[in-house]
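Regression test case RT-17, inverse folding.

Input:
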């Protein structure tokens, strides 16, 4: 019998645990499944609440806030299981959410990771931003999803109910083989938060493993419960981490041209923020680039170390054009209407 560890990373999230942990427990009652809360040194009463109200839940207490990446790395190394399921504290799984994920991996040993369909908690008829029905990137590294392009979330009419290969699985509900998580080195702690799951999945894909969305498994996600989409810190982390991810994982033939184009696009974004009067976000872009240049020598070393692990560097799940241009200039706001993208991916 295989063992699955559902691991919720928490930081001062007592109210979220009160709201969502009971459903996680109720819908995860399968043999071999154990629920854990990994706590990033919370200063609220999260731990006391869990011990009193849910003594069946395992607790891993960390000595400081290590962020998403560091928190999970340090927690997962303390857990013995065949599969890990990284679950955000603001996620409500639907009934029978685990069997489709477990079955998918057991049928395909090369399937390193998978994710459920992620719907919006407040609008459950719509896909949620952080993953929808599976994640992709364009050739410049901008992420989007099957069911969500930029900030446009589609209504779920069952149009993406078939399991398909994806480029990245959302960290909001990431099911992964523990041995492969360890093989690729876990999450990159320099990211702290945001884009770290895409970086992880890119390394997994480059090693020749598969990643899929399994829509027969569904969860509801609040999103932005820890850091609002409008917060400048999110802008900073997204811009910086996206650049670091590209330097680390792009094929050699594409890295110079792609990075040059990204610098131009980031410059346009900076001036766009200025024109909108969003000076905090403009400053966050500058801060992101300064941090990127500081970390660049280290990430070039990471890139060099990863190169021998590459078995496949060209992926059908990377959109060969600009998703931003498709959205703003061509009015493409539905994943299924993307042209010049593999038909087997769009359906």
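Golden output:
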């Amino acid at each position: 019998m295989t063992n699955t560890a559902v691991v919720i990373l928490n930081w001062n999230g007592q109210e979220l645990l009160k709201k969502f942990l009971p459903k996680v427990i109720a819908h995860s009652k399968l043999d071999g499944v154990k629920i854990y809360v990994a706590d990033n040194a919370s200063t609220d009463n999260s731990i006391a609440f869990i011990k009193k109200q849910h003594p069946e839940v395992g607790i891993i207490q960390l000595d400081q806030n290590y962020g998403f990446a560091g928190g999970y790395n340090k927690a997962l190394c303390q857990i013995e299981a065949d599969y890990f399921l990284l679950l955000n504290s603001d996620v409500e799984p639907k009934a029978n959410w685990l069997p489709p994920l477990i079955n998918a991996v057991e049928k395909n040993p090369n399937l390193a990771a998978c994710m459920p369909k992620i719907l919006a908690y407040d609008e459950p008829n719509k896909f949620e931003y952080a993953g929808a029905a599976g994640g992709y990137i364009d050739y410049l590294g901008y992420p989007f999803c099957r069911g969500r392009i930029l900030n446009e979330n589609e209504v779920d009419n069952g149009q993406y109910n078939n399991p398909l290969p994806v480029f990245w699985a959302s960290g909001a509900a990431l099911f992964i083989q523990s041995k492969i998580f360890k093989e690729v080195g876990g999450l990159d702690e320099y990211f702290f938060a945001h884009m770290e799951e895409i970086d992880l999945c890119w390394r997994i894909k480059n090693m020749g493993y598969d990643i899929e969305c399994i829509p027969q498994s569904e969860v509801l996600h609040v999103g932005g419960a820890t850091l609002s989409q409008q917060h400048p810190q999110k802008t900073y982390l997204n811009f910086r981490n996206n650049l670091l991810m590209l330097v680390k994982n792009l094929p050699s033939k594409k890295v110079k041209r792609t990075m040059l184009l990204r610098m131009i696009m980031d410059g346009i974004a900076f001036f766009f923020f200025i024109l909108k009067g969003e000076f905090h976000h403009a400053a966050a872009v500058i801060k992101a680039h300064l941090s990127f240049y500081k970390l660049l020598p280290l990430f070039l070393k990471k890139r060099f170390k990863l190169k021998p692990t590459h078995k496949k560097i060209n992926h059908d799940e990377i959109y060969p054009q600009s998703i931003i241009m498709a959205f703003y200039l061509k009015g493409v706001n539905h994943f299924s209407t993307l042209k010049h993208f593999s038909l087997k991916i769009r359906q």
